[in-house]
Amino acid sequence: AEKECWVMLIEPKGTKHTGETDFELSVDEEDQNWI
To answer: Each residue of 12-34: b (16+ CB within 10 Å) or e?
Structure first.
């Protein structure tokens, strides 16, 4: 693309996280380099 577009996704504070539960789409904290 000629132009760049940045998007920031923000979730509500009340969003529940999976914690210790692993799903096929789960990413370990160590592998979350983009954050």
So the answer is: eeeeeeeeeeeeeeeeeeeeeee
pTM of the model: 0.28
- CB within 8 Å of 26: residues ≥ 6 apart: 18
Tens of pLDDT along the chain (35 residues)? 689 999 998 888 777 666 677 777 777 777 777 65
Q: Identify whether the C-beta of residue 23 lies closer than 8 Å to the C-beta of residue 15.
A: no
Is the CB of residue 17 less than 8 Å from the CB of residue 27?
Answer: no
Token pair belonging to 26: 């789960």
